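Q: what sequence does this backbone want?
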């Protein structure tokens, strides 16, 4: 079995999703024109489908669209899509997409940049990050905020401990200064 297929299957099982959850992008508004199915996981977009003008998502699917993809890395602008949109405008040609399930609308942490690798769902409150998990990218649904800590703030209750606050949205890369160093995630 291909490594990306193993990742996709493991990710879906971890998030409680079905094997058939996906997204569809269309080259014309109102789900018209050429259709391109995007399975869960990462997908390069065919050149003829790059002009995305409408999107259809299964419930609980999260889609991240990218402007650039070269040498195995995404780049340029990106766009988060969490609901179907019959008249979508990205502002750029889409060349790469990552789709994942989040039916329970939780904060999801990923071990690799651009929402790849092992995934962990963080509950509201204090979450200790497992020693074998290095947080590199994060999805924060609307209505949630997080604080990322390299050390436990309860260790020094009398002083402010350095942390990185983040509001709702996507962070394809949390930053070189804390990548793979976060030990605690507080979800509000």
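A:
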């Amino acid at each position: 079995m291909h490594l990306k297929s193993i990742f996709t299957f493991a990710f879906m099982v971890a998030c409680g999703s079905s094997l058939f959850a996906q997204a569809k992008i269309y080259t014309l508004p109102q789900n018209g024109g050429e259709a391109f199915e995007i399975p869960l996981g990462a997908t390069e977009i065919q050149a003829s489908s790059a002009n995305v003008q409408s999107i259809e998502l299964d419930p609980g699917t999260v889609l991240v669209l990218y402007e650039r993809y070269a040498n195995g890395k995404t780049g340029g602008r990106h766009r988060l899509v969490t609901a179907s949109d019959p008249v979508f405008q990205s502002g750029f040609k889409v060349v790469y997409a990552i789709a994942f399930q989040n039916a329970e609308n939780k904060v999801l942490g990923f071990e690799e940049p651009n929402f790849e690798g092992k995934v962990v769902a963080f509950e509201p409150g204090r979450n200790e990050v497992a020693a074998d998990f290095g947080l590199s990218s994060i999805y924060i649904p609307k209505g949630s905020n997080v604080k990322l800590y390299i050390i436990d703030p309860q260790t020094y209750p009398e002083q402010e401990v350095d942390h990185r606050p983040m509001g709702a949205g996507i962070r394809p890369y949390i930053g070189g200064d804390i990548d793979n160093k976060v030990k605690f995630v507080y979800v509000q």
